[in-house]
Task: inverse folding
């Protein structure tokens, strides 16, 4: 009797266990019955041209390409303005995770917002994809298993341009740096590369942020005699520095070139080819690179009447691969999706030869570009000559010990 | 730190150019504050608006009107854009500011600040934030060899033009009969009105004039700075410091302080560039400690 009872209990519990796990699999497939992608970026401020509304449009293209559905569940898109403030970003993210059923948030043109939301996403077991966030901290000391830095970081940008220019024999450098964390880290990464490759940093001018008149700094840089004047700043600072340098005829000869370390195609558009011509720069994406990139970009152009920036293209790629990973993993559970992503080879209209590292860095090919002369440009947005394709392994930083995820191997 | 005399002179010259913009902008602010008691926070936005008008005139208006070759050149823009901005300013004064004269200064400040945000937001919405380039007129392109540096011709033009404008403005307000009326209007509007002078119209025109000065500065700045919705807001903080140092409402004070601070900023950029913005505010703090009414202000 006793044995019978025991056997009965065992059988019942086994059945129950099987039933619950089957149920869990059904329910766990897609949480809340919907996959929701959130785009959190700058819709009104200084970063809105290269992210902004265009990022959401790019995400929508990816969703449409997947047929608007994954594993039978609908895919929805939400977008909001984080105003480049970490506290606003954190509040929006909490709301989206807790009440909005959002599974993944992408973009973050301001690194501080990215780091704030990464932390919350980790606690709530959701995914973040930094398509525009370039801070090294995101893959170093602040790295998270549920985060991907889905385009570039300051090191890859700086190293790409620096290595390419050093290879042409330009060994002496002068930095014009925005005097805040971002500028300093760009300068640090680039000077490390310059010194490691036998180059020399002749001097640095750190300008207040945002700066208005750069002529003093550019003249100082010019008189240093350096072969490369590297601009470790971004946006309107970079644009003004280049524009004013052109006024003084600085950087117009082969003996001394200007190299902006972080430039988007929107900056070149704003400067005009007459001012920007001949500059070398590194980007992760250029719309006119090949057939596939053009096909995506024309789709984007039809929607936005502009060509996509690298960040906007990155949002497309991030969303597309996130959805593909859900399909492959058979669930939208954050951990499973991320490990599936790490096992995939990323190859789409935007990212080539990509693989996602344990620390969240997406290592992939980058492009060394040179701005065309006005006479070479055949249409609007025809801005760059692709000088070379930089292998991901050569330009992305080695995994850092600062990230505990790297230690596991 | 080794600085050659050449580099030193070059940096001083650049400082002078910056100082010219400070002087023109702070003069407009000083006039508006001195005569209307309004702390005009829209000044930066009005500066930006004029730069945009110039850019629209040069590159956009032709295509908009269907004549792609039609454009309003720099010289015409230098007259028209400040006029439009001035009229726009007068409309704001007539419809909004006028209602606040009997209230505390703070209300005027809040109103003008709000108007500035709306204007900047509007331009940002239509034209984006990366900004637009504006080429100086052909005759002013290219540099001149000054011996110690190559200075773009356009920058020389800016220095000469803004010094003339500043001097002219000072003369108008301090040395002419019209200027005397204006100053009397601030001292005792009722008395002046009893002499048969239409004080409200005079005030509107004065506000328009102050705003137009910002407009001239905006058009002059367009070929130097990228034309962006934020170009004025970024400058305005420093310009307010200039006005405070010079003495709120002192026309001569704001002009001299503007030029001097431009030079000091230029020198700081040579010695310790990180401090080049801070130095203005340090001087402001010191000036307020020593002379609370400003260097050129009258103690009340």
Result:
């Amino acid at each position: 009797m006793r044995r019978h009872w025991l056997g009965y209990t065992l059988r019942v519990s086994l059945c129950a266990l099987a039933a619950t796990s089957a149920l869990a699999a059904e329910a766990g497939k897609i949480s809340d019955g919907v996959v929701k992608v959130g785009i959190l970026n700058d819709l009104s401020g200084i970063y809105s041209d290269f992210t902004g509304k265009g990022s959401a449009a790019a995400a929508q293209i990816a969703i449409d390409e997947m047929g608007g559905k994954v594993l039978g569940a609908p895919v929805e898109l939400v977008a909001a303005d984080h105003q480049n403030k970490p506290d606003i970003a954190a509040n929006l993210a909490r709301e989206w995770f807790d009440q909005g059923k959002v599974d993944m948030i992408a973009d973050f043109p301001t690194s501080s917002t990215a780091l704030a939301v990464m932390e919350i996403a980790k606690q709530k077991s959701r995914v973040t994809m930094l398509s525009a966030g370039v801070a090294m901290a995101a893959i170093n000391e602040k790295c998270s298993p549920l985060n991907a830095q889905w385009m570039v970081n300051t090191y890859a940008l700086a190293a790409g341009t620096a290595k390419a220019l050093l290879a042409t024999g330009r060994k002496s450098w002068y930095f014009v740096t925005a005097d805040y964390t971002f500028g300093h880290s760009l300068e640090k990464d680039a000077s490390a590369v310059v010194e490691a490759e036998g180059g020399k940093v002749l001097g640095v001018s750190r300008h207040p942020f945002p700066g208005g008149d750069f002529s003093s700094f550019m003249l100082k840089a010019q008189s240093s005699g350096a072969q490369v004047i590297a601009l470790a700043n971004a946006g309107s600072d970079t644009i003004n520095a280049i524009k004013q340098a052109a006024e003084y005829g600085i950087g117009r000869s082969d003996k001394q070139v200007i190299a902006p370390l972080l430039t988007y195609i929107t900056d070149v558009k704003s400067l005009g080819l007459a001012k920007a011509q001949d500059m070398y720069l590194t980007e992760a994406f250029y719309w006119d690179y090949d057939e596939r990139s053009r096909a995506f970009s024309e789709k984007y152009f039809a929607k936005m009447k502009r060509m996509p920036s690298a960040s906007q293209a990155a949002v497309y790629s991030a969303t597309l691969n996130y959805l593909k990973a859900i399909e492959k993993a058979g669930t939208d559970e954050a951990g499973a999706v991320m490990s599936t992503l790490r096992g995939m080879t990323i190859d789409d209209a935007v990212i080539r030869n990509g693989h996602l590292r344990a620390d969240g860095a997406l290592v992939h090919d980058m492009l060394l570009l040179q701005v065309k002369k006005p006479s070479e440009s055949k249409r609007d947005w025809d801005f760059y000559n692709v000088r070379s394709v930089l292998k991901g392994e050569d330009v992305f930083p080695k995994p850092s010990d600062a990230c505990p995820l790297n230690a596991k191997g | 730190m080794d600085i050659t005399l050449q580099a030193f002179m070059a940096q001083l010259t650049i400082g002078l150019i910056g100082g010219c913009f400070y002087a023109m902008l702070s003069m407009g602010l000083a006039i508006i504050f001195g005569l209307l008691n309004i702390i005009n926070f829209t000044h930066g936005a009005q500066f930006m608006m004029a730069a945009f008008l110039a850019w629209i005139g040069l590159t956009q208006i032709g295509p908009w009107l269907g004549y792609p070759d039609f454009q309003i050149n720099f010289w015409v823009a230098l007259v028209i854009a400040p006029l439009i901005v001035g009229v726009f300013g007068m409309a704001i004064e007539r419809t909004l500011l006028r209602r606040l004269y009997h209230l505390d200064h703070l209300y005027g400040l809040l109103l003008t600040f709000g108007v500035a945000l709306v204007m900047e937001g509007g331009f940002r919405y239509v034209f984006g934030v990366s900004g637009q380039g504006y080429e100086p007129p052909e005759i002013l392109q290219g540099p001149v060899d000054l011996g110690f540096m190559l200075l773009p011709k356009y920058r020389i033009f800016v220095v000469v033009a803004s010094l003339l404008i500043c001097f002219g403005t000072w003369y108008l307000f301090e040395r002419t009969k019209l200027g005397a009326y204006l100053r009397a209007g601030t001292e005792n509007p009722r008395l002046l009105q009893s002499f048969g002078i239409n004080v409200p119209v005079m005030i509107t025109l004065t506000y328009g004039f102050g705003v137009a000065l910002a407009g001239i500065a905006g058009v002059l700045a367009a070929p130097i700075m990228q034309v962006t919705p934020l170009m004025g807001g970024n400058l305005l903080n420093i310009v307010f410091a200039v006005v405070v140092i010079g003495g709120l409402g002192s026309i001569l004070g704001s002009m001299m302080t503007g030029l001097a601070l431009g030079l000091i900023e230029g020198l700081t950029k040579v010695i310790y560039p990180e401090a080049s913005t801070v130095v203005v505010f340090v001087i402001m703090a010191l000036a307020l400690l020593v002379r609370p009414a400003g260097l050129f202000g009258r103690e009340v």
